[in-house]
Amino acid sequence: MWPNTTASPFLLTGFPGMEKAHHWISIPLLVVYVSILLGNGTLLFLIRDDHSLHEPMYYFLAMLAATDLGVTLTTMPTVLGVLWLNHREIGHQACFSQAYFIHTLSIVESGVLLAMAYDRFVAICNPLRYTSILTSTKVMKIGIGVLIRAGLSIMPIIIRLHWFHYCQSHVLSHAFCLHQDVIKLACADITFNRLYPVVVVFAMVLLDFITIFFSYILILKTVMGIASGEERAKALNTCVSHICCILVFYVTVVGLTFIHRFGKHAPRVVHITMSYVYFLFPPFMNPVIYSIKTKQIQSGIIRLFSLPNSRA
Fold first, then answer.
1. What is the per-residue DSSP string for 149-195?
2. What are phi and psi of 171, to 5 degrees?
3. Neighbours of 289 (CB within 10 A)
4. What is the pLDDT of residue 312?
5. How many C-beta atoms lie closer than 10 Å to residue 199's C-beta?
6. E strands along the chain, which residues?
7. Can you give the pTM of this predicted structure?
8. Which of 4, 35, 87, 167 could disulfide-link 81, Cβ–Cβ 3.0 to 4.6 Å?
């Protein structure tokens, strides 16, 4: 069977029943969109430009910022197209590509958070060997491994979408393409596409969280063994930003899962709103968290914005 390339395009959906308010709804979404671009873009610029930030911890932060930018740049163009221009049509290839990047980057984010936990574990539990263990080459290999793991794990279900025939309604339930939305429209056996994502979630995202959890138990055990209270506080303080990012990511994952599993009778707008929270809240909050809780990032931002004034 050849890929289905001549079928009618899918139709994206904004906020059903609130079409007249789409322009108003787009305003806060646009503000969040621009904030995400500026916040994560600033982090990437600082880490590239400031040599004092050329350390494993900040390299992993740069990966997180790049992932957040990728998620936002993948989802928001079609969202704004629907809300501003009522441009709802999206071709199958474009839709499947968007779904692939959205789901891949979600797995990447989980992997990057795990890598950041490993960085904190080595820094606190084995500080004397920190620089020899987490070399630039090792950090690069971890980043590539996280990307390959995510890309390969999502590929099987997205490839199968190209061969399905879609004889149901072509209307999707969001303003961007998600795998779980697309397979509802397929007139084919979708058993594999229903079960495989569950396996991926349990094998990767849940396993990542469990590994992060146990790494912090070991970190806490090591910190409690430090005699000086000031040193204990200093060690824990280096983990606060990462812990906040973990909570932001996994709380939104649990919230979205809970709504889809137990909120079947909830208004449709609740499901749609929760999906926007899932995709936009972590990329919005992560730069805020690190700029508030990390002194080196604070100093870099101050230098960045005071530079024009000092020149003047």
1. HHHHHHHHHHHHHTT----S--B-SSSS--HHHHGGG--S--HHHHH
2. -90, 120
3. 19
4. 47
5. 10
6. 10-11, 89-90
7. 0.91
8. 87
